[in-house]
Amino acid sequence: MALKIRMARAGAKKRPFFKIVVADSRNARDGAFLERLGSYNPMLARDHKDRVVLNVERIQHWMKHGAKPSDRIARFLHEANLGPKPVIRETPKKSAPKAKAQERLKAASEAAGAPAEAPPQT
Known about the structure:
The chain has helices at 56-64, 71-79, 99-112, and strands at 3-12, 15-24, 35-40, 52-54, 68-69. It is α+β, with helices and mostly antiparallel strands and 122 residues long. Strands 4-3-2-1-5 form a 5-stranded mixed β-sheet. A hairpin with a 2-residue loop joins strand 1 (3-12) and strand 2 (15-24). It is elongated, with a radius of gyration of 21 Å. The two termini are 37 Å apart. The relative contact order is 0.14.
């Protein structure tokens, strides 16, 4: 069973509230979970003490048993000094301009007299 520490949405329309739970990764986002580990209320100010509430003991217990935190939860854990800073993913290479578009950008910039500033494609 692949365990994840993730958020399950609660709250009304336009008023989000999230429970931080440990669940089987195959379950639905708001479906069955094993244990509630805290809460996250994005409607509160960033510096409010109740914005993110974590049960540190239980989170450490579940992580020892193989539970992996989601990206957002890993960020919360880093802010609470409970884990390493998560790696920020780069923009996908698919969104970079293709070869012909890069050639057109280069030609247009040379015609204007400025150096080309197209993102490198690898």
